[in-house]
User: Fold this.
Amino acid sequence: MSAKSVTITSGKGGVGKTTATANLAVALASLNQKVVCIDSDIGLRNLDVVMGLENRIVYDLVDVIEGRCRLRQAMIRDKRMPELHLIPAAQTRDKSSVSPSDMVKLVDELRNEADWILIDSPAGIERGFRNAIAPADEVIVITNPEVSAVRDADRIIGLIEAEEKGPARLLINRLNPAMIKHGDMLSADDVLELLAIELLGIIPEDEAVLISTNRGTPVALDGKTHASQAFHNIARRMMGETVPLLEFDGRSDFLGRLSHLFKA
Amino acid sequence: MTTVFQRLTGKPKSASQAKDRLRLVLINDRSGLSSLELEEIKNEILQVIARHIDIDPAAVRINMTQDGREQRLIADIPIRTTHRRKLG
Assistant:
């Protein structure tokens, strides 16, 4: 096994980095891939609660780096998906307790343990961001169709290129087809034209994401919702498959709902 | 770009305003130049060229354009052809 390491980053906070990391991890694990997620947001950890694993933390990332435990001891195995693991961030430390070379060393040590290593980056362009992209084979930039998120995504794409980690691929999160139809939201094409990078996927705005986060069960664990389908398609694209984009226009949405009704 | 909606109401849709504003902001962010600095560069280029060739400053177009993720400063500077006419 030699894992591919992928960092999910955004520049702006609150656009869905942690949610995307958790759900792509679940979706990859459902394709029988062994996945290790690393929360690199030291001091502001959240991947544990989003994945519903917050009560099982004993050791964290900084414990491994400072030699208080072995790597395996800090890997929490998800009971719902035995192929899925989390290394949580430390909550009572700050970004300076880890260096980019610490991250490279840790990820290299993990490569023989998994197929995928997904690194959840903190917001911002400082030390935490540099720690998160240092060990990355690939970088995924996530944004929302919104001026501040697109602007920050552009900035982060430039920094990724400067660090020679590019070209990054793009996820557009929380797309609202009805608002796009009314001309009140940037479309995926608009965002792509502005940022000029390859599109990896689109995740529609979906209440199910918040509901599942409330429960600590990532939305991708239940395959029925639109957001879940989007995450599963993105995971298949990460595996190298060609998967067409979901249609999000009003009509297919209605048909989608109808077919769910009949299936239920 | 004006759509039918804009022609009817006179008010552009918010998405197209967002796109237009972002286009300009990204040009400034990527080049590290503000629109004022860009204006200064244009004026200096014009001064240098005008020292050697007869140009019409009003017809000059110097703009930052986007080509993929690459920024380009494109200058279109028409030259006055007065002396050629004199010869003819």
